[in-house]
Amino acid sequence: MTAGRDWVRYWRDPGRPLEAMAAHFERHVYHRHSHDAYSFGVTEEGAQAFSCRGAAHTSAAGMVMAFNPDDPHDGRAADALGFTYRIVHIGPDLIRALLADVTGGAAALPLFARPVVHDPVLARALRRLHSALLGGADTLRRDEELAAAVAAMVRRSATRGLSAPSPAADADRTAAQVRELLHERMPADITLDELAKGRSRFAVYRDFRARYGMAPSDYLRQLRLRAARALLAAGVPPAEAAGRVGFADQSHLTRWFGRYYGITPAGYARGRASVASPR
């Protein structure tokens, strides 16, 4: 969608009530409306003015917006420069399931009393989730960021919060079992539900991170990169290696290979680092 300098990017989960949008609006004005989902947004640039719950609000750069299901609101640019924002819509049933997973039992739906919150921690959590959704991240990464963002929003901003269960005595065993399953399934994609196997997804994520110092999705990526190194050393071309270890394509492998090892896959295959030519 474009109108003048307005632009929109949209993403929708085919199997769950989960949607995400990034947009820049200078001319577009939202008519008063509501959603059947929770909506969490972050204003990136400019300022968005809107009315909600009988009051006027402004969300400037860095601020978080939180709308409950069926919260009527409108929206427009606060000035001629417009605003850029990202927003995630999460269905109540999915929110309830995620919170039940955190608490280890039935969880009441949260209520957000303030439509605008200034909290950099929440903003970062929502940006990570949004980037995972629109950026084509693996299913496991999307699940992790979704659980983390919802837990952060409820703990830090909701009037009805939640309490995390006390650490389980078998946390190390749980982490080891998850690690074993990641090795078994690599390079295939895997969901947090599959790793949990009926346990709390939040607890599995927490225990694994505490034991191995990284999220399960980071660990899986590391396994893929290690496998790619072995294939490259054996003479397999980078494009083929990328596909065999679970990366989307060669550029995807190259990007992460460089971040982890400071060298391109081709440079590694040649047995020397890629260095800039002297001036």
Automatic annotation (TrEMBL):
It holds the Pfam family HTH_18. GO terms for molecular function: DNA-binding transcription factor activity; sequence-specific DNA binding. The keyword 4Fe-4S does not apply. Residues 176-271 form the HTH araC/xylS-type domain. The keyword Ubl conjugation does not apply. Keywords: DNA-binding, Transcription, Transcription regulation. It comes from the Bacteria. PROSITE patterns: HTH_ARAC_FAMILY_2. PANTHER family: HTH-TYPE TRANSCRIPTIONAL ACTIVATOR RHAS-RELATED, TRANSCRIPTIONAL REGULATORY PROTEIN. This is AraC-like DNA-binding protein.
